[in-house]
């Protein structure tokens, strides 16, 4: 009830501001109308994302990755004579705070477009407001199907979807590794439900269903009940749709009870932070039977950084320049890619910048090279730039590319404990 009241209040404020003529800064276009967030020398975007709390690492790194690109572009003179400004507010991965931040960005700050939102429950919450203001939203750190279907011209995704991630993962688990007893551990909200549905749909294609479903409440580490359900099912693999803290806690409980399924997580979990929280896995490899796989929507850094002209190398260099205490990571690289698409769309939109012109410019992007062999393309009926999914495995030192599924299958078949506590597969 409280959340509904908050949304209705913010919606009325937004509508009132729009009807009053949207006072504030705006550069007159050729049509004579002022474009919000555009001045003679700058264009301003707005972001609401988790900078603190249990998803703070994801928001901070997404933001810094984007800023690495935008700061360098501004130092080089901006785009079409304008600097790119980014106003960012912390929502701590809390939907009501994200809603309030977005209202502030649209009505008070009068940003040109929204950019780099992090998370499904937060981003889905603001969609009615995006529609009301008719403002573009670009580069969400979420693979949610609700941001893709039904198609909405105001929403522009860069990354592959959770349905694509889980479909590829289930294909490898079942067809390549021969695993049939698959459970799902998920966050009890829109994000978790999306991953759960994607996994169920993928399993259905093989005549399977989850052997167990276990959940936890967003913002907590209360995974014990969900863990108990999944452990009792003797699952051979666990698909994990959560945040890094909860997933790490689940894996730690499995270690303590000698429950050793294969653990698979989607990209949102955050590879580097998950690895740090899981802790050391030993100099010679993971603990007996412990396999942690994560899908990624950007190339693994250890391979991407080797490309002479790739964005990953530029991102790593700029991160060292602007944020010397940070280490390059997959989350930040995704933010960098988002900014690359934003910059290209601004360049194509030209000096007479409007929101509609910006969307049309985005739709004209075909084959924008992010890395050698990785290109982003859009169109009037296609607002998702990338389709590829990469798979990495936790090794000493971090996640590395899975380069041989048959080799992993042989490893699992060699008597490693899988599923049953302390038993052999």
Write up this protein.
It is built from 15 helices and 16 strands. Strand 15 (390-395) and strand 16 (398-401) form a beta hairpin. The chain folds into 2 domains: 2-11 and 35-160 and 308-376, Rossmann fold (3-Layer(aba) Sandwich); 162-296 and 389-413, Rossmann fold, CATH 3.40.50.2300. Helix 1 (2-19) runs parallel beside helix 3, helix 2 packs across helix 12 and helix 9 (244-256) packs parallel to helix 10 (271-278). The chain is α/β, with parallel strands linked by helices. The strands form 4 sheets. It has a 7-stranded mixed β-sheet with strand order 9-8-10-11-12-15-16, with helices on both faces. Strands 4-3-5-6-7 form a 5-stranded parallel β-sheet, sandwiched between helices. The termini are far apart.
Count of DSSP strands? 16
> Which class do the helix and strand fractions yield?
alpha/beta
* Rg from Cα: 22 Å
In CATH, what is the homologous superfamily of the largest domain?
Response regulator
Largest β-sheet summary: 7 strands, mixed
CATH topology of the largest domain, what is it called? Rossmann fold
């Amino acid at each position: 009830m409280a959340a509904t009241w908050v949304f209705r209040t913010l919606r009325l404020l937004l509508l009132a501001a729009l009807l009053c003529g949207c006072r504030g800064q705006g550069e007159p276009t050729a049509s004579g109308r002022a474009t919000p967030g555009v001045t003679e020398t700058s264009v301003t975007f707005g972001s609401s994302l988790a900078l603190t709390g249990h998803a703070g690492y994801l928001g901070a790194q997404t933001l810094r990755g984007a800023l690495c690109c935008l700061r360098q572009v501004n130092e080089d003179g901006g785009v079409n004579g304008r600097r790119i400004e980014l106003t960012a507010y912390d929502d701590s991965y809390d939907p009501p705070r994200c809603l309030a931040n977005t209202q502030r960005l649209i009505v008070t700050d009068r940003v040109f477009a929204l950019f780099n939102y992090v998370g499904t429950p937060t981003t889905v919450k603001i969609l009615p407001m995006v529609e009301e203001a008719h403002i573009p939203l670009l580069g969400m750190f979420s693979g949610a199907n609700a941001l893709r279907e039904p198609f909405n011209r105001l929403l522009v995704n860069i990354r592959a979807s959770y349905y694509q991630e889980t479909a590829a993962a289930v294909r490898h688990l079942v067809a390549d590794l021969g695993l049939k007893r698959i459970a799902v551990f998920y966050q009890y909200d829109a994000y978790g439900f999306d991953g759960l549905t994607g996994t169920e749909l993928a399993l259905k294609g093989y005549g399977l269903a989850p052997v167990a479903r276990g959940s936890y409440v967003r913002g907590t580490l209360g995974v014990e009940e969900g863990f108990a359900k999944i452990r009792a099912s003797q699952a051979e693999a666990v698909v994990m749709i959560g945040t890094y803290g909860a997933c790490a806690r689940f894996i730690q409980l499995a270690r303590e009870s000698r429950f050793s399924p294969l653990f698979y997580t989607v990209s949102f979990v955050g590879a580097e932070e998950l690895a740090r929280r899981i802790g050391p896995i030993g100099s010679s490899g993971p603990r007996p039977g412990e396999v942690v796989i994560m899908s990624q929507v950007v190339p693994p850094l250890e391979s991407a950084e080797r490309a002479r002209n790739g964005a990953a190398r530029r991102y790593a260099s700029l991160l060292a320049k602007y944020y010397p205490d940070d280490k390059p990571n997959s989350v930040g690289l995704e933010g960098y890619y988002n900014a690359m698409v934003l910059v290209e769309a601004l360049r194509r939109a030209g000096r007479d910048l409007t929101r509609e012109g910006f969307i049309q410019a985005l739709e004209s992007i075909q084959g924008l090279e992010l890395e050698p062999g990785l290109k982003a393309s859009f169109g009037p009926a296609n607002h998702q730039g990338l389709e590829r999914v990469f798979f990495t495995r936790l090794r000493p030192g971090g996640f590395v590319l899975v380069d041989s599924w048959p080799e992993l299958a042989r490893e699992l078949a060699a008597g490693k404990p899988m599923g049953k506590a302390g038993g052999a597969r």
